[in-house]
Amino acid sequence: MLLDRYEHLFFNANFKEAATTGDYVAYRGEFILKEGEVADAQGRRKPPTELLKQAVILAGGEAIKLLSGSLDELQQFPLLQEIVGGDITPESIVVLFVVNIPQPFVSEIAGAQAIFIPLVQGMVWNELCDLEGLDKADFKGQSSADKVVTLYNALGNFKPKYPAMTLSDALLTTNNAKRETHGAV
């Protein structure tokens, strides 16, 4: 199973489970891009230094069908591409929310159309649902993995009207934006 080879990179996992239809397996949680350094003689590590936050990953067969999450900086994308790039196909849907980009753009990654959208606050799952106008009723009675499959099927029809840009050009436009978090006072 494809996601099994990434299991060591799952962090604060919400779930990893098989969908009831097809050969899909879904994961939601954090995805480690760069592990923390070894902290002691037993080999325990410090927390990861870089993450794909709020990751939503759907694998089918031997390919990643849906890859989404939030990056603090576009400069982290090469780490993600190095890790999962071999499992991205032209049929993959890649939607990444990035804190430090000024405007959305589309780029080609491993033959797949990758969509990059600025997001300094918000939840990846909610933003993905908003892209296709999905609401709670669209997921009623479904398992966690089946909800990811429903989202994937809906995103298959998404045709962004964002400008095309190479990753190297996009890296020249990054800004100093930081993630905004709100919580209890």
**How many domains would you count in the coordinates?**
1
Major β-sheet annotation = 7 strands, mixed
The residue ranges in which pLDDT falls below 50 over 5 or more consecutive positions are: none
Shape: globular
Helix percent reads: 10-25%
The order of strands across the largest sheet is: 1-2-3-4-5-7-6
Beta-strand fraction estimate: 25-35%
Mean pLDDT, rounded to whole units? 92
Structural class: alpha/beta
Give me the count of strands. Answer: 7
Distance between the termini: 43 Å
- Taking Cα atoms only, what radius of gyration do you get, to the nearest Å? 16 Å
Concise structural overview:
The protein has 185 residues and is α/β, with parallel strands linked by helices. Helices cover 18% and strands 34% of the residues.
Question: Could you please describe the fold and organization of this structure?
Answer:
This protein has 4 helices and 7 strands; from the N terminus they run E-E-E-E-H-E-E-E-H-H-H. With 185 residues, the protein is an alpha/beta fold. It has one domain (2-171). Strands 1-2-3-4-5-7-6 form a 7-stranded mixed beta sheet.
